[in-house]
């Protein structure tokens, strides 16, 4: 099972995640308690494996902002976490992860309108931020839905304690964690190791 650790803000968190089997890291370029500057992200990304997925997380961005971040920081996949339209998604010349907040089965219906390889299914939006709120949704909603050729990234309230159950119920392509590997709002290296060990199991 693939794992994405999102909201990376330090070398220590990035290196710990990679060393313990993370397949993707997320860097937030939007208003968030985990927002990172282009320069800080670039300094972290320069030390990472070239083939690692480095996602830039955006909320209702301009194409110019995406271009600036991609060309400077070195990310290689764009995560759209706002109310971006299918047309905007199609206009991005990089691989795209489109995030959706899931509260009911009807929220899944719009997924196929978006021309992207990956869809990220997150819990309900918080009052202040679009994602990273540590709130899960009913994974049973996914059991009868046909995602066709889209790769599902499961997010929202995942922790070491519930991720195995989430994988069993939702059978995603990848799981994504942010607040679930934090202590007092900061990435906790021990929690990152424990989460990855739980998901990766005997492979480590």
Question: Could you please describe the fold and organization of this structure?
Answer:
This protein is of the alpha/beta class and 204 residues long. It is 26% helix and 21% strand. The protein has helices spanning 11-19, 38-45, 63-73, 86-91, 163-170, 189-200, and strands at 2-5, 24-28, 53-58, 77-80, 96-101, 118-122, 151-154, 174-177, 182-183, 186-187. Helix 1 runs parallel beside helix 6. The radius of gyration is 16 Å and the shape is globular.
Question: In oligomeric terms, what are we looking at?
Answer: single chain
H/E topology pattern: EHEHEHEHEEEHEEEH
- In total, the number of domains comes to 1
The percent range for helix content is 25-40%
Radius of gyration: 16 Å
Number of helices, where a helix is a run of at least 4 consecutive DSSP H or I residues: 6
Number of strands: 10
Task: Note the main sheet.
Answer: 8 strands, parallel, barrel
Strand order of the largest sheet: 1-2-3-4-5-6-7-8
Structural class: alpha/beta
How would you name the CATH homologous superfamily?
Aldolase class I
**Low confidence ranges:** none
Mean of the pLDDT scores? Answer: 93
- CATH-defined topology: TIM Barrel
Shape: globular
Task: Supply the CATH architecture.
Answer: Alpha-Beta Barrel
β-sheet strand percentage: 15-25%
Tell me the name of the CATH class.
Answer: Alpha Beta
- Cα distance spanning the termini: 12 Å
């Amino acid at each position: 099972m693939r794992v994405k650790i999102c909201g990376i803000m330090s070398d220590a968190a990035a290196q710990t995640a990679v060393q313990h089997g993370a397949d993707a890291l997320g860097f937030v370029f939007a208003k968030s308690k985990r927002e990172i500057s282009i320069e800080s992200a670039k300094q972290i990304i320069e030390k990472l494996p070239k083939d690692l997925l480095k996602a830039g997380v955006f909320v209702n961005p301009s194409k110019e902002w995406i271009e600036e971040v991609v060309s400077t920081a070195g990310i290689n996949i764009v995560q759209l976490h706002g109310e971006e339209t299918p047309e905007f998604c199609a206009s991005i010349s990089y691989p795209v992860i489109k995030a959706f907040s899931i509260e009911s089965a009807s929220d899944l219906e719009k997924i196929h309108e978006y021309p992207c390889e990956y869809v990220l299914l997150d819990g309900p939006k918080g009052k202040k931020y679009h994602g990273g709120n540590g709130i899960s949704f009913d994974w049973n909603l996914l059991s009868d839905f046909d995602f066709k050729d889209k790769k599902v990234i499961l997010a929202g309230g995942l922790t070491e304690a519930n991720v195995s159950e989430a994988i069993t119920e939702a059978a995603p392509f990848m799981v994504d964690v942010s607040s679930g590997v934090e202590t007092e709002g900061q990435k906790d290296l021990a929690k990152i190791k424990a989460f990855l060990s739980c998901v990766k199991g005997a492979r480590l």
